[in-house]
Amino acid sequence: MVMRKKEAGELPREEPQWLKRNVLRAVSEGLFPHDEAERLLGEPLEEHRQFLDRKAFMKLPVAERRKILEEQSKALQKHYDELSELEMPGGGDFFDY
């Protein structure tokens, strides 16, 4: 077994998502005021407008909803492609268990 003295590359800093996800959900369900959400998140809600009104999304025509979901899936695919390039310690790919 070969021991590494250094990591292969520096990983990007992980951003916590729990608070953001739950605050946005509470706002979208009308349980939390916008100004309080902005105070907690430390950023304007405009950046997250797409997540705030689920009912409005469902009122969009099916073709428009599919277009939005396709764009999101492409962004996620890029993310997963980047993850698959990472190597696990001891060899092998990130997703090889």
Describe the structure.
This protein is mostly helical and 97 residues long. Among the domains are: 18-52, no CATH class; 61-87. It is built from 5 helices and no strands. It is flat and about 55 Å long. The model has no long low-confidence stretch (mean pLDDT 76).
What key phrases describe this protein's structure?
97 residues; mainly alpha; 5 helices; 0% strand; flat
Distance between the termini: 18 Å
The outline comes out as flat
Strand content: under 5%
Taking all residues together, what is the mean pLDDT? 76
Number of strands: 0
Helix content: 40-55%
How would you sum up the major sheet?
none
Structure class: mainly alpha
What's this, in brief?
With 97 residues, the protein is mainly alpha-helical. The chain contains 5 helices and no strands.
Outline the fold blueprint:
Elements: H1 18-28, H2 34-41, H3 49-52, H4 54-59, H5 62-84
Helix pairs in contact: 1-2
